[in-house]
């Protein structure tokens, strides 16, 4: 396996925390799609990353020499661009932009949920909370540890006691958190339907805070 392919696989693995993202093939090339929409591929012939972006962005990347037209079989795809230089930082940014272009998250969803979490934390008397962008959303840290995070996919992510994971997964609207295609022990995803009311949200935030407080402060 080439270095470029290894880079592509590693970066796209990082996108699989999003349950809407999955691997597939397109025109015989490995690709990834979100909510059924293709947004990136790896051209095994040229060893290039291929991403779908707005037409003006594609034109800019081609004009500045970063990208090249993507024209399999001689047909130019105006919303796709081939990026041959395996630059990890560049490829990571382009993959994120392509993912969002393929299936954008409605604006305000994360912010609205984050405001609700802040209100619950205040009601619970939790202070010295630090906020940090993480997992494509916004995490709330207590004592330096993640208590809960507003997910860009809706709902929340939180850490729980590993021995409690199986029991909690039996509750409605809960799923294991998946990162790079693997389930993370001690992590839980609660879908939006499971935190629609303040009572529901408070239950999960309190559990996350208790878990964070049980760890030595950082």
Residues in helices, as a percent range: 25-40%
**Topology-level CATH name of the largest domain:** Aspartate Aminotransferase, domain 1
- Name the CATH architecture of the largest domain: Alpha-Beta Complex
Secondary-structure class: alpha+beta
Mean of all residue-level pLDDT scores: 89
The Cα radius of gyration reads 20 Å
User: SSE order in H/E notation?
Assistant: HEEEEHEEHHEEEEHEEH
Strand line-up in the sheet with most strands: 1-2-3-4-6-5
Distance between the termini: 40 Å
Extended strand count: 12
What fraction of residues sit in β-strands? Answer: 25-35%
Number of helices: 6
Question: Topology, please?
Answer:
Elements: H1 3-13, E1 21-26, E2 29-34, E3 37-43, E4 48-52, H2 55-63, E5 68-69, E6 80-83, H3 88-102, H4 109-123, E7 129-134, E8 137-142, E9 145-150, E10 156-159, H5 165-168, E11 174-179, E12 182-190, H6 198-213
Antiparallel strand pairs: 1-2, 2-3, 3-4, 4-6, 5-6, 7-8, 8-9, 9-10, 10-12, 11-12
Please provide a written account of the structure.
This protein is an alpha+beta fold. It has two domains: 3-102, Aspartate Aminotransferase, domain 1 (Alpha-Beta Complex); 109-213, Aspartate Aminotransferase, domain 1 (Alpha-Beta Complex), CATH 3.90.1150.30. The protein is built from six helices and twelve strands. It has helices at residues 3-13, 55-63, 88-102, 109-123, 165-168, 198-213, and strands at residues 21-26, 29-34, 37-43, 48-52, 68-69, 80-83, 129-134, 137-142, 145-150, 156-159, 174-179, 182-190. It has a six-stranded antiparallel beta sheet with strand order 1-2-3-4-6-5. The protein has a six-stranded antiparallel beta sheet with strand order 7-8-9-10-12-11. A hairpin with a 2-residue loop joins strand 1 (21-26) and strand 2 (29-34). The longest helix has 16 residues, at 198-213. It starts with a helix and ends in a 5-residue tail after the last helix.
């Amino acid at each position: 396996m080439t270095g470029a392919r290894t880079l592509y696989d590693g970066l796209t693995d990082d996108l699989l925390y999003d349950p809407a993202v999955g691997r597939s093939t397109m025109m015989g090339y490995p690709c990834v799609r979100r909510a059924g929409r293709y947004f990136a591929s790896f051209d095994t012939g040229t060893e290039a990353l291929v991403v779908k972006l707005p037409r003006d962005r594609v034109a800019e990347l081609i004009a500045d020499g970063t990208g090249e037209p993507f024209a399999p079989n001689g047909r130019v795809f105006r919303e796709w661009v081939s990026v041959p230089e395996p630059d990890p930082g560049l490829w990571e940014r382009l993959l994120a932009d392509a993912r969002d272009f393929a299936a954008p998250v409605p604006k305000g969803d994360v912010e609205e949920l984050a405001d609700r979490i802040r209100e619950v934390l205040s009601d619970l008397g939790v202070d010295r909370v630090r906020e940090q962008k993480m997992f494509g959303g916004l995490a709330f840290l207590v004592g330096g540890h993640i208590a809960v995070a507003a997910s860009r996919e809706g709902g929340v992510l939180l850490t729980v006691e590993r021995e409690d994971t199986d029991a909690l997964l039996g509750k409605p609207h809960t799923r294991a958190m998946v990162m790079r295609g693997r389930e993370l022990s001690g992590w839980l995803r609660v879908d939006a339907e499971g935190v629609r009311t303040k009572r529901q949200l408070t239950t999960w935030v309190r559990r996350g805070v208790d878990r964070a407080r049980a760890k030595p402060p950082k």
